[in-house]
Write a structure and sequence with these properties.
With 235 residues, the protein is of the alpha+beta class. It has a domain at 8-65. It is 56% helix and 16% strand. The protein contains 10 helices and 5 strands; from the N terminus they run E-E-E-E-H-E-H-H-H-H-H-H-H-H-H. The chain has helices spanning 56-62, 77-94, 98-111, 116-128, 132-143, 154-166, 170-183, 188-200, 204-217, 222-234; strands at 8-15, 21-31, 34-40, 46-54, 64-65. Helix 3 (98-111) packs antiparallel against helix 4 (116-128) and helix 5 (132-143) runs antiparallel to helix 6. The N and C termini lie far apart (50 Å).
Length: 235
């Protein structure tokens, strides 16, 4: 791949807490022998902000070329500004810069108070600062909003479920995953995460039931296999 390299968008698969798999995308360019990762704007172009430098060997192992997709509908200046602010907040969150992340997410919510990613990010920022009650309040409001339970928000709701589980809000996490499964009933990761919340809340029989569904959808899902062994020990 490095012999015929052309700069553009590349991705790697990242396994997050709770078994969530996500494709992380960067703009990739060459600088001499080094491969430079740059953060993306939400329109898919480079921000010019360097994230990492890689050797050719690391680049080959970790990244794949991202197929080009049809361009999205043109966004309004306000939507572009909001996406830029929210993405900046997510970068701060990834770097554990929780106060800076809070600032950016609050700016995003001033533009559109119903933005799902900004709301989730704000709750995660509070959690990172140890402001647990503030985080729980944000997560609860987001989980109760029926209007945003849509396909495009599936991964955000999966992230919300993980955040709720970390705060030991197991009933809310279970409710959230049940709603998310209605969006995509064929995703084994959602059933696994639902099972994990049920397991931690001592609902062992229900956890086993949804783990079985997860493994029916993906028999090689190692995290689900490990959790099933723990579940069977408790039965």
């Amino acid at each position: 791949m490095t012999d015929d390299f052309a700069e553009g968008v590349f991705h790697k698969e990242k396994i997050l807490t709770g078994g969530l798999r996500e494709n992380i995308k960067y703009w990739m360019r060459k600088d001499g022998e080094a491969f430079i990762l740059e953060y993306l704007r939400l329109d898919g172009a480079s921000t010019g902000m360097e994230a990492e430098r890689l050797t050719a060997e690391d680049f080959e192992k970790r990244f794949e070329k991202t197929p080009e997709v049809a361009p999205e509908e043109e966004k309004t200046p306000e939507e572009i500004r909001q996406e830029k602010v929210v993405r900046q907040g997510e970068i701060h969150l990834e770097n554990k810069e929780f106060h800076s992340a809070e600032y950016e997410f609050e700016n995003g919510l001033r533009i559109n108070e119903n933005n799902v990613r900004a709301t989730l990010g704000l709750g995660q920022s509070f959690s990172g600062q140890g402001r647990i009650e503030n985080a729980r309040e944000v997560f609860s409001k987001l989980g109760d909003n029926e209007d945003i339970c849509k396909e495009e928000n599936k991964h955000t709701f999966n992230g919300l479920g993980i955040a709720l589980r970390k705060e030991e809000m197991y009933d809310d996490a279970v409710k959230n995953y049940n709603r998310t499964i209605q969006i995509d009933p064929d995703d084994p990761i959602l059933y696994y995460n639902l099972s994990l919340a049920l397991f931690h809340s001592e609902q062992i029989a229900a956890a086993k039931k949804f783990l079985e569904t997860s493994l029916e959808l993906d028999g090689g899902f190692e995290d689900a296999q490990k959790l099933m062994r723990l579940v069977l020990e408790k039965i």
